[in-house]
Amino acid sequence: MVKKMYLKTMAKYVITLGLLFNLSCNTSKESQKTEKANNFLDFSENILDYHITPKDAKDRSGLMFSDQGAWFAYGMPEDTTDVIGFTGPFLMTQQNGVWLSNSFANTKIRVDNNPESLKTESSRSYSSHLEMNYACDKIAVSETLLFKNGHTALLQTKIKNTGNETIDVEVLWGNAPILIEGISLSQNDHTITINSTETDAIGYLTFPKNTQVELVDSLNYKAKEVLTLKPNETKEIVVAQTFIFPEYSWEEEKQSIANVNFDSVFEVRKSEKNNQLKAIIENRKPEFKDDKYAGVLAKSQLTLQNNWRIPAGELTNEGLFPSYHYIGFHGFWAWDSWKHAVGLAYYDIDLAKNQMRAMFDFQSDDGFIVDCIFRDTTIEAHNYRDTKPPLSAWAVAKIYEKDKDAEFVKELYPKIKNYHEWWYAKRDHDQDGLCEYGSTDGTVVAAKWESGMDNAIRFDDSKILKNGEGAYSLDQESVDLNAYLYAEKLYLSELAEIINKLEDAKTYKDEAALLKDKIQEQFYDPEDGWFYDTTLDGKTFIKGEGSEGWTALWANATTQEQANAVKFKMMDPEKFYTKVPFQTMSADHEKFNPLKGYWRGPNWLDQAYFGVQGLRNYGFNTEADQATIRIIEGANGVLGKGKAIRENYHPITGEGLNAQNFSWSAAHLIMLLQND
């Protein structure tokens, strides 16, 4: 600094030194630019808008912030009067999520016995924390919320005396009204316990030992701490909010809270998130180096983070909800999990592996993988009626690419092999080497669910056939299922080689070669230039151009000529090259209905990704880049700050549809932009 000032002074008189000074300034600016570029956490600033003051316990008009796999989350108040604090918590300990209170740690400030009305100076959110800053004539207050771990959030309140005289500051806490039934509060020293008749999770609000804490009644508490602040002096108070399940130790967590250093946890959390964002932002394809795409990646990472849950109840491994924000999505689904794991592998390899383990923990002896699993089966039972498309080998292979962990491959390989063989044992009605979607309970609806494309038009006239006890198939062979199985054979072959199972590797390669020929011969209509499902005998196409038509391109299972024809239709604006390209069915089909169709017209970003990657597999990189840009720019709210990533999108208008904060959409946005 001194050197710069000296150069600046001398530059008035000496031209040479003036030139040197200009060079120094330019170097300094470049240094600042580099420093900013290295602070990847900045890309997450306010990337999602958490402002909400819930009107009732089930109000989902706003978004919620969570981290470390916690089963609770917070928002930020929409406006502030005399009371400051964060919104919530939003409790996912109760199956579908409810707000405990508008603010369970409401804070009021008194200075020299006089209430202070604080003005909100700023509110910021990052992937690492939330922060609110307030001020009045005498003091400045900052509140920061972060997650210590999957059980406890820490709330730091910093108060600075901005006046010229020593002051006494009273910090007063209390709770806004409880919004849900079955809650009661109790007190033990400086801790308020939150009990619920609806869940076995117990909550704790822990104040510092010198705080005066009082239970007013079974639904209200109050607490007070007095600080004496000299001019320009700053003091802080840290409060902990915990929600913990009985399989974890509250005594250990309580001891950890007593010894916690907020600033140390804060630095760890910021570094952790910065490194995660750095991993995916630096790994972008060269075509997507603009900062706006870094913002998409930051929003995607944060979407996955907010859906992350640690093991609890029936869930024996950590993983991701499809959406914490949507009723009914508070569990883990099979093919969602495979997709989540691939997206996570780019920046959080351990979580990616555990997401895989979460579903295989429920594998049956015959290889079957359950469709979805939940923490509390007294509320929602695991769905054993069907499974989901076989993408687990793809996920494990992608994870292996990142860290070369052969032990993880060795752990999962026999399970995936068992799952792969299950398809041919239980879902190949005519034993011709081509599988069908089906169900375990003999219902058509569960068989449609097994495809993951629940109400796709190709299933409108499907019927169910019995293969054996607890094993049923639809009366049609699906191109996407067999393309997935083809890809899985090749991935299994790769994984087998990694763990030196060379005979398995050869077997799967040989099987893949045979299956590839069948896919090209049976499912491709040369007149239409499209891949369709067929009847069980393989003689009749089930017409209606849908996204399953390019799955064979994603799997690398077509000829170049076939890929050329499919690409031509994919890039047709009247069919699939819409505002948000590569939707689930052709826009010119009579049953196309994005607003009411679910899988009959909306753009699901997993299918869009399979389409883009399919183009890349056959050399259509220019088209793939153009489509990627169009998807991201066309899907409302993917670009820019504030709005959530959606479950699916209207391909013509770009409107976000159905669930907000959807995990596989976020995972596939990461995949679309990564440079593999």
Fold topology:
Blueprint (H helix, E strand, L loop, with lengths): L1 H9 L4 H24 L33 E4 L11 E5 L6 E2 L6 E6 L2 E2 L3 E7 L4 E6 L3 E9 L4 E10 L5 E8 L8 E6 L2 E6 L5 E5 L5 E6 L2 E10 L4 E11 L5 H9 L3 H21 L8 H16 L1 E2 L9 E2 L10 E3 H11 L4 H12 L11 E3 L17 H12 L2 H21 L11 E2 L4 H7 L13 E5 L2 E4 L1 E2 L1 H20 L3 H21 L1 E2 L4 E2 L1 E3 L5 E2 L8 H4 L5 H11 L23 H4 L7 H13 L3 H14 L11 E4 L6 E5 L2 H11 L3
Antiparallel strand pairs: 1-2, 2-3, 4-5, 4-10, 6-7, 7-8, 8-9, 9-16, 10-15, 11-12, 12-13, 13-16, 14-15, 17-18, 19-20, 21-23, 22-23, 24-27, 25-26, 27-28, 29-30
Structure, explained:
The protein has 676 residues and is an alpha+beta fold. The protein contains 18 helices and 30 strands. The strands form 9 sheets. The chain has an 8-stranded antiparallel β-sheet with strand order 6-7-8-9-16-13-12-11, with helices on one face. Strand 11 (183-188) and strand 12 form a beta hairpin. Helix 4 crosses helix 5 and helix 7 packs antiparallel against helix 8. The longest helix is centred in the first third of the chain and has 24 residues, at 15-38. The radius of gyration is 28 Å and the shape is elongated. Residues 1-37 have low confidence and may be disordered.
Question: Can you describe this structure in just a few lines?
Answer:
The protein has 676 residues and is α+β, with helices and mostly antiparallel strands. 36% of the residues lie in helices and 21% in strands.
